[in-house]
Structures are given as structure tokens and as C-alpha cells.
Amino acid sequence: MSKPAKTLTACLLILVLALPCAGCWNRREIQDLSFVTAVGVDKGPEEGTLKLTVHLAKPFAIGSAESGGGLEKPFLVATSTGETTFEAVRNFIKSSPRRLNWTHNRFFLFGESFAREGIIDPVNWVGRDGETRRRTLIVVAYNSTAEELLQAEFELEPIPASGAEAILNAAQKGLSTVVVSTVNDFLINLKSDGIEPIGTRAQVFPLVPGKTDWDRTNIEGELKRTEISLSAMIAGSALFKEDKLVGFMDERETRGYNWIMGQVRSTIVSFNYPHRGNKKMGLEVIRMKSSIIPQIDAEKVQFKVKIDVQANIGETSWPAGSHGGADMIKMVEEKANAVIKGEAENALVKAQELNVDVFGFGREIYRSNPQKWAGIKEQWEHLFPLLNVQIEVNTRIQNTGMVRF
Amino acid sequence: MNMPDERITGAQLMSLMYISRIVPVAIVFPTVAAVEMAQDLWVVSLIGAVLSVPILLPLLFLGLKFPGQTIVQYSQSIMGNIPGKVIGLILVIYWLKIAVDVIYAVGDAYTIAVMPETPILVFIILSAFMGAYAARHGLEVIGRISLIFMILVALVGLLVVILPFESAKLKNLLPVMENGVRPLLKPVGVSLAFYAQFVVIGMVLPYLNKIRDGVRFSGYALLITGILIILFSVTLTVVFGVTAKDLSVPAYSLARMIRVANFFERIEVIVLVSWTLSAAVKLALMLWASSLGLVQIFGIPNHYPLVYPLGIVTVIAGYLLFDNHMEFISMFLRSAPFALLMVVSLIGLLFIVALLRGKLRSPGGI
Amino acid sequence: MLNENEKLIRDSLGNSIDLSIRRLRVGESAEYELLIVHLQGLVDDWLVSNSIIQKATELSRKISSSGEIFQLLHDNLLAVSGLEVVAKADEFVARISEGYCGILVNGVADGLICSVSGGERRSIEDPISEPVVRGPREGFTESVQVNISLLRRRIKDPNLWFEKRVVGTISKTEVVVAYISGTANEKIVQEVRDRLKRIDIDFIQESGQVEELIEDSPLSIFPSIFRTERADRAAQALADGRVAILTDGSPFVLVVPTGLSMFLSSVEDSYERFYFGSFFRLLRILSFFISLTLPSFYVAILTFHHEMLPTELLFSIAAQREGVPFPAIVEAIMMELVFEVLREAGLRLPRMIGPAVSIVGGLVLGEAAIRAGLVSPAMVMVVALTAVASFATPAFNIAIAARLLRFPLILLAASLGMFGIMVGMFTLFVKLVAQRSFGVPYLAPFAPLVLAEWKDSVVRAPLWTLNRRSSLVAKRNNLVRQEPANKPLPPDSINGQSDES
After folding, report:
1. In chain A, how many domains are there?
2. Closest-CA residue in chain B for A366?
């Protein structure tokens, strides 16, 4: 190396070595941070403000569980208000000795009344900020504020956000009565024409109804916390028009939505079986797929939704082996077709009543025929509630379990 | 003139081309900002990759016809002394401009996505240092590190392209080209403007150990980069839909969507790895090419003393030229057609004049 | 005249107490005088008395002149293997001080020099710095003659050539260049000769000092010359076409040219089944990277990239760091330094106390530091893992290089996170790629990428597929090790017989 190069290298080296002393630009020691696991947004006390409620993890309480300090809750609920989301986020500094870190936040909860006025600001903040993730889940509190929802806890899972996430994932996979909606989905649906965003619905409820002496509750086990008064149920979905909440779908309707969208992973469809004295039986859906087929001609737009379901017979309320052959299976399939079709139609009716195209029928037109869509885009508002959608369900029973039908 | 005894292999040439082309895609991907509809992105990438072939071919042809000469040297032997030197100088300035873009893009991406409170100057200076440090060691070293980093960067690229499948919705790709071909012109131009940066291989070709490998491996480079960019465009669209267009640092955002089996997530840091390493290699190539170009224009004995000063020039330019991300992108989009036009006309001019003056009959035939 | 010579010798060697001069009177009437000169301790006393003194004393028949005695001694009497005639006095003295035995005859100008080297030497032992489970147990010794013989015993090809050179104006150390002519690249052999010739220093007593004077990159932190204590390793290297440099007085033989991959391999890879060898080589490359970068990654994640950790792990680390007063970088550097001190202490102590230090240091100190809240358990684990990984590197000097580079990397990580680490790694990588060992790229076969040679560097392919020597090292036109298709097969007849019966 020649001499000037050496000097230059030395200078740069000194610069690099001086950097740790120079400043703490983005350096944040882990113990100076407080990690947000869930956040709720409500209307603020004054008009035009909003209130954030966050769950902050208390790592020492999680970590000290083994050394006997398990009585402390492993999280902290804190609130802050501000004109905008980001301002409210910063206002936490006033009350929290540690800087909030959003990298591990999983939930964005919205109080019903707040959501009805539009949630664009917080959602946009999530999309823009470098710490938050677009995979953050959007949940709307049914009939309550987000703050109340954040009081809910889950047995077995010390951090409520983990519990809620586990429930949500399981419900999506095993029940299909929820809709999982991330900020990414929300932003895409918000920006696309011909589809409206949808969110998850959650509801807070007292854990043990009718129980009064909370102090005496004694749950043995690894977690020795004595009181869990509220828990939450995550089921159903919240429908948005643009960014404003307009209504909810209950579990059945949400499953109807999922039938149409082809999002049912596995679920139990139970009904009364007419050929056996209307006794109950249940099918376990193994897999399904759906296709939404727009049928567009010069003046009319209508849709056909084909739903293919593959299911097993999971239960019957009569003894096995007593009910004959293959044509009986056909009858079960027909009955199941009708039930599923009914659910899907209910969901459709609900959406049409509220006039929110959460299914994206408009977008389907756009995708298959952009010219046509350009023509009817403006009137979609009026066309959707009257849209004719034919639903065709085709169930196939694969097996009947360990015993014959 | 000065021709140090350095040799690179065809595979190394391929890796240099690959990294030069992938850097802008991996960092800010300005083509995204240029398209009207996100779903056109992959079409644009495809057309860009195909149209890059006619830009590259005359360059390779000239390289074969003037073995042992860099583009700066053979532009002098084709056009005569003074006009040739002017062309060489234009190219040198062009390469420095690319270096400035790279340097700012790295700093920009880091300050946007990872460390917003750190001054951008820190990233600019250190990137320039990395590039100049490698450039000072000569083309051989640049070629060798680029081949290793190419493997690394390609692996990162594949991970980022494949792993976000959980969030992907294939239907987001529809409709394709709803407004016809016209809206594609501008983004294809931007995409081609990046392919035009391949003119730098005019400096690299004479160092190939087997000159014939040049054609084959440039072909591979085009193929690999083309496929990866198309895949990347597709993934970007299927994951982000209409919002793909709004992203400042698409690759990083894409990596943040990765989640496999509920535990394999939060691996976006690997994108930082590819940013830093590939940008440093590209920077090294550009600094090396421009310093060697200056050497060959002004007859300076060797390029080593020029590298660090040129690095400092790029730092100053990178720091002063742009104020923010939006300005950087829009400046780039506005200058892209001119850069493309300049490169295409320069290569065309050299090629045609060489043809007219019968210089192409010299030894080294195809 | 003999008296004058004796005085001259005594003066030249300062009448040193280890100088032994024996006067012998020979001939029928003991009319001729002999002077037998040697240094005690350097020669084999038994040889001197039996092969020289006794033989010379037998010289009692009719002789007419002292010249005849000289001729007799030279031609048939002395029972020693090496014998030469020296004319100059200073050369005679120089040979004496090298450990030869000299004979002067009254009236003859020339002196006889007999090689009777001997004296106390360490015997051939296990190479303690490069132990293997399976493989020869022969380690080099301090004697260059013994070392040469060890190599010669393993390579019986007459093309194994040794060239001697004396280095050091005071020490007069014998440095021997060994190579297989026709296999080794002549350019490299010549380069070795030239560089050895350039050495101009007073004192050399270890091959490490020779190494430092002939290196390609004297400032680099990574050694560009390989050293081994194992005879089989050196022999294998010679067979690969490399050049070995033996230094008298050092059991470590230098091998050039070399590269990083050689430092990360062990001879045992070739002796055990190739699956094991391949696995261990990959493991060593991995642990080399761990020992280089793990603490800096940890610091970077803890101070910049909190999002990288899975949530549960993040909380558990955060809980551990509750109450630790230092930032992660201070914690890391402190613990790394403590570990380095422990390692150094354990190394320098007598063998009986070493384990005690590691127990006190490693276990007690670590545990106490955690209890005192000085460091977090996770950091102790990171440091311990790094340490263990660095011990997995077979070559000690390359492990030290990685350990030293760890500190700047930690600093960079603490100041700029991942970007800082990448700046450091990139610079290091450029430096290593530019480094050469006697003209051979240091990072070959990675950079430049030579996939064909990954067979015996990254992994260890079966021996019957390793058909060619490395073209980077060996002479270009003599690369064939064996004919292809050498895969061992069971003879057909055995299969046939068992089928029939």
C-alpha cells in the first residue's frame, strides 16, 4: 500500500472506531426498550383526538416466573392520547420510562365507535413506519372499545397477544369462522377498486359467568396468577366501506364469506339429516376450493360461484353401519350442498344489505374485463346490492371414518 | 498503454454484470415507481430483458474486434484521438454518475428502512470506502469477490422471491396491460437505462482470459438477471397488489412479509447483507472503470492514485445532489431516457464508424 | 606447526570450555602427531572414540610421511559416514562450531572434517500441536537431519530433493528446502530460494522467524505460510506439489504455497471415511465463521435489529439483561477479553495447573459474573460458543487471527449494526482475496472460484475420485495422481461363486 492510501485508511479507521462514541443514532439497548405486543385505538376524550392503549411486555416478569415471582402480570397496559396516531405513539414517552418498540407488535385493535369513523390514519402509519410490520393483524372490537378488549387475558398464555394470535390461527385453520386480515390485505383492498376491506371481529366476555368471589379462584399449574376476569372470543368479521366500519358478520356468515372466497381450511358442517328422522350429523371439511366466475354480457353482469368441497363424515347421532349404501352418501352430499349454499347466500345477503363488496366481485370484473369495469365502475355502488350471484356447491364425501355409514 | 497483468474469467464477468444489474433492483427498484399499474411490472421486466440484447451485442462485437483494448482505447482508435477522448470522458462521467446513484441509493435505503436517525453521510462515506478499497486492488480482486457475492446475493434474492408465498395472491397479476402498450414505454425505458449500464463491460472485456467466453457469459448474465428480476416483479405484485407501486424499498418490504411455519420470519436483515455487499462491488467496478478510463485518456501511469479521490468526489456529489428519496427517484426517472439515449447512440456511433472505416476487418474475427 | 594450529583454534573459539582438543601420537615410534578437535555435546562421544581415536591409534605400521597418514585416514581408516577435506583455517573452525569433528595432521596443511554429529536430542514424539485420533504419530523434532529422514522415509522417490541454505550470521541456522522435482512448480521453488536468499539477519531459531521474513503479505493478520509438526502432513503436502522449508532447531516445518482452506483442514480428513472428512470440513468452515462473527452479530441484533429475534427469545434475553448495567458492546468486549485472558493463562501454566484455571475461570467466574449481574447468561453463552468454535479450527494461528478480528467487528457492529459488520467483512474479504501465498491466491478455490478443487477443500471426496493435483499449486503438466475410474470393485468371481452355490 502506498503512503497516501495508508493515511486514508488510517483516517477512515479512526472514523469508524470513533463512531460508537459519536452518538447513539439508532442504538437502542434492549433494556432501554419496551416491546409493544398489541395496541388498541379508540376515540380520545376530546373531539378529533384518539387514544392508544398498548400492551407492553414485562420481560422480567416472564423471566422470573421460574424463580417464584410468577404473581406479577407479564405485561402492562398503558394509554396515551394525541391528535394523530404517530403523535399519540410519541406521547407514550411522557408516561413510559422506556422507549416503545413496535417491531414485535402483532395486533392493531380498533374500538367499534372509532372504527366507524375511519381507521385510515393508524393503518397508514403501520404501512409507513419502519418498525411496524405490514403483517400486523387488524381486529375490531365488537360492541366495546379496544381498551376494554385489551383487558382480556387468556389462560395458559401469559402474553395476551400470543394467546390471541394462537386462537386466531387455530380458528382460521380449524373452524374457518374468522377472517384473518393483515394491514397489507387491508391496504391493498382499500386501494383497489371493486373490493372493500374486511377485518377480524373480537368480543370481550367475562371468563366465568356468575362467579363472584374472584379472590378465591385457584388455578393450579405453571401459571399461578389468581385472577383472570375477562377473556376474548375471536370469531366473525368486520366489514368496512372504504376505511369506515359499517357492520359485522357473525360466525356463520363469516364462514359463508369464506366458502365464497375459498378460504375454508377445515371446519365442521353439522345439520339435521332428513332421511334419518332429522337426527343430527356432522361433516368434517378436509379441503375446498371455490371459483368466482363473472358472466358479463352487453347489458348485464352476473356471477357464478362454484364451490367444491371435500368432506368426511365425522359424526352421526345414530349407530354406525345401519344405513345402507352408496346412494345414501349422495343424499348426504345433497343435504350438505344445500347447507353450504345457504351459508354462502346469507353472507352475500348481509354484504349486499350493507352495500359493501367485501368479496371483490367488482375487482373480478376488472380483472377479467377492464373495459367493462371502466364503464360500470361509477355505478358499482348501485349495482352491487342487486347483483345476481348463482352459488353452486358440489360436496364430495370421501370417507366415513373408522366405521361405515 | 498501461495494461497490468490482470485476468478475469468469464464467470467473473457474468457475476459483475449480474451484480451491476441487481443492485438497483434490490435496493430501490425505480422501475416500480415508473409503472402505471403494478401488474405490468413483470411485463416491463421481460421486455427490458429482451431489449437489452441489441444494446449488448454491438458492445461485445467491438470488444471482440479490438482485443486487448478497452472501450476508451478503441473509441480513440476508431474516432481518432480527440473525438475518442471526448467519448471516453463522457463515459467516465457516466460511470461516476452511476457510482453516485449507487452510493445514494444505499444510504437512502438504510436511512429509510433500518436506521432513520443515522445521518446518511455515514453510509455514503463507508460505502464509498468499501468500493474504493476494492477498486484499488484492481479488477482481478473485484472479479473474484463479485463471483462469491453473486452466489450470496442470488441466494438472498431467491429467498426473498420464494418465501413470502404465504401472503401471495396470484390473482393480483390480473389484468395484464389493460391500457395497451403505451404506458409501458416509460418503465421499459427506465429498465433499459439500467441495462445500458452494461457499457462498463467495455472496460472489462480486454481482461478476459478467454475473450470468446465474453459472449457466452454475458448471455448467461442476461438470462439470470432477467429471470430473477421477472420473478421478483411477479412476487412483488402478487404480495403487495396495487400497493406495490407505493413502496420505497420493495425488496426490504418483501423480506418483511416472509413468514414460514410460524417461526421462520424476521429475516429481512439478509436483504441488508445483499444491499451492502452488492452495492460495494458495483461501486468498486464503477470507480475502477472510471479511474482506468481517466488513465487511458490522459496517459497517467497507473490508476491507483486516482481511486480514492474519485471516491471522495462521489461522496460529495452523492451527499449534495439529492435532498430526499422522492427527489432521488424523480431525478433518476427524468435522467434515465437521456442516459439510455446517450449509451445507445455512443455504441451505435462507434459501431457504424468502425464499420465505415473498415476497422472491423482487423484480426480477432468472430 | 600443530601447536600453532592449536593456538589458532583455541583463539578463534575463545578457548571455550566445551572445546576438546586431543593430541595423539601415532606411527611405529609415535613420531607423528594428530590433533583431534571437536565441541563437547555436539558430537557423538562413542563415535569419536571408536571410529576416530581408536582407528587413528591403530595407525602404527610403517609410514613414511605425515602426508601418507593423511591419505590413509582419508581413504580407509576412519569409520565415519561423512568426510571432507578443508583447506582454510576459518572454515575448519566454522565446521567445528557446527558440530563436526576435525583432524589435523602435523605437517599437512589440510584438515579433515568428519561428521559424527550426535549428542542429546529429543526423540521422535507425538506431535502435540496437531493431535489426531487416527493417523501416524510421528512428529518432527528439532533436528533437521532427523526431519529430513522422516520425510525421506515417507517419500522414497529419488525426485525428492533437499537443498540446504544457511541463514543467520550468528546462529548459522540450517534451512532446508524440500520439494519433489517434477511435481512441484519450479517457479515457486525458485521463488522460495530467492526469498530465502534475501534473508539477512543475525539470529534465527524458529521456523516462525523464517516465515516472517519470507511472507507475501507481511502486514496481514492471516498467515500466508502453513506450518505443520506432522511428518505425514508435510509429506502429503510435498506430494501435492508444495514446497517444504525445514529449519534446524524447530519442529515446525513450513509449507508453501497455502491457502485458507488448508488451514481449515486436518490430515485426519483423508484417513477416515470421506463422509466424516466432508462433514468435519464443512463444520470447521462454519465454526470458523462463528468464531469470527458470532459476538458481533449478537451485539448488532441486541443494539439495532431487535426485530430479528423471535418474540419469545427476545423477551427472554431482555429479561436476562434486566439490571445488567453495561451496554451490550461493553459486555461483549469485556467477556471476550476475560476469555482471552483465561485462554492465555491456561496455556502458559504448567500442565498440572491448567485445568484448574479453566475450572475456576470458566465455571466459577462465569457463574459469579451472572449472579453479580455484570453480564447476562446469553452473553456468556455466546462467548463460550465462540470460544469452542475457535478451538475447532485445527490451525492455531488462523484461530488467533479470527479471534483478534472479532474485536474490530464487535466495534463496527455496535456502531452501525449489520451495515458495520458488512463493512468489516467486505474489507476483510477484499484483503484476503488480494492476499497471495507464493503467487497462489489465498482464498482459492473460493475466490477465484475453482469448483473442481472443492472436492478436496470444502469437502473431501472419495480418494478414488481425486484424480488430479491442484493446478494452482503443482506443476501444470504433471497433475495426474491416478487414472480415472479407479473405484474399487469386488472381484466378479466372488460374486459369481456365491451366486452359484
Report:
1. 2
2. B175
Alpha-carbon distances of C44 from C49, C114, C119, C143, C356, rounded to whole Å: 9, 11, 5, 14, 43
Domains of chain B: 10-171+182-354 (1.20.1740.10)
pLDDT tens-digit map of B180-224 = 788 888 889 888 999 999 999 999 999 988 888 888 999 999 999
Distance from CA of A27 to the nearest CA of C (A): 5
Same domain, A376 and A361: yes
Chain segment C156-211, per-residue pLDDT in tens: 999 999 999 999 888 889 999 999 998 999 999 999 999 999 999 999 989 999 99
Claim to verify: residue A301 and residue A374 sit in the same structural domain: yes
Q: What residues in C contact B266, CB-CB < 8 Å?
A: 307-310
In a domain, A15, yes or no: no
Note down the domain range covering A135.
29-249
Cross-chain residue pair A31–C316, CB shorter than 8 Å: no
Give A63-82 as a DSSP string: HTTTTT-TTS-SEEEEEEEE
Taking an 8 Å cut-off on Cβ atoms, the answer to whether A4 and B305 are in contact is yes
Is the ipTM above a cut-off of 0.85?
yes
Q: Is residue A7 domain-resident?
A: no
CATH number at residue A337: 3.30.300.210
Q: What is the DSSP string of C95-136?
A: HHHHT-EEEEETT-S-EEEEE-B-S--PPP---TTS--SSS-
Cα of B156 to nearest chain C Cα, Å: 15
State whether A208 and A265 are in the same domain: no
Q: Edge to edge, what strands does the sheet with A301-316 contain?
A: A267-273, A279-296, A301-316, A388-397
Q: Which residue among A196, A225, A249 closes a domain?
A: A249
Give yes or no for A27 touching C (CB within 8 A): yes
**Residues A267 and A159 reside in one and the same domain:** no
Instruction: Note whether C418 contacts B273, CB cutoff 8 Å.
Output: yes
pLDDT in tens, A147-174: 888 888 887 777 888 888 888 888 888 8
> In which residue are the cell numbers 583455541 written?
C10
Q: What are phi and psi of C252, to 5 degrees?
A: -100, 120
The CA distance from A258 to A252, in Å, is 10
Same domain, A387 and A340: yes
DSSP-assigned letters across all residues of B131-193: HHHHHHTHHHHHHHHHHHHHHHHHHHHHHHHHGGGGG--GGGGPSSSTT-SGGGHHHHHHHHH
A357 and A339 in a common domain: yes
Burial A173-186 (b: 16+ CB within 10 A, else e): eebbbbbbbbbbbb
pTM recorded for the entire structure: 0.88
The contacts of residue C496 (CB under 8 Å, 6+ apart) are: none
Q: pLDDT tier at A223 (50, 70, 90 boundaries)?
A: very low
Q: Is pLDDT of A15 > 80?
A: no
Looking at the fold, whether A184 and A240 belong to one and the same domain comes out as yes
